[in-house]
């Protein structure tokens, strides 16, 4: 009697047909959260947040996932101390009242090759929670040669309507939509 192995049986034999969700912890040294906005239509102001933490869970077989990120708003850095203080004030981020911004993404989109293309979830900024989609401009997972673990990462971006989050001061100085850029690397646990 001749036996034929199907692809599903072969994958099941290697444990790939029933993949489990994998959890990754964000590597703060290789993760960046930054923003850019025009200043009076003249130049582009850029800033970043130096303290962030979180985790990512991906189930490649089910094509689902979850992202949880927390950003310390007092870690803002534009390279200009006086401007950093201005952005921490009530007119902008009001970090005395709202020291943390969080993003919880519960809808992860994948392409046909299984790469993440977008993450949609809820962003809480300055006490307001609204839906946001972070679009991936790149995404990949590798067996990291130095860490000896799987690491996934990519570049994501979105436009945030600042007034909807209560950051509406000086509309003549900066446009309504601020570009947010996230570069993330996360290590499998």
Automatic annotation (TrEMBL):
Lipid/polyisoprenoid-binding YceI-like domain location: 23-187
Keywords for the protein's UniProt record, in alphabetical order: Signal
Keyword Signal: yes
Signal peptide limits: 1-19
Protein origin, superkingdom: Bacteria
Pfam families listed in its UniProt record: YceI
Family matches, as Gene3D superfamilies: Lipid/polyisoprenoid-binding, YceI-like (2.40.128.110)
InterPro entries hit by this protein: Lipid/polyisoprenoid-bd_YceI (IPR007372), TTHA0802/YceI-like_sf (IPR036761)
Descriptive protein name: YceI family protein
Lineage, broadest ranks: Bacteria, Pseudomonadati, Pseudomonadota, Betaproteobacteria, Burkholderiales
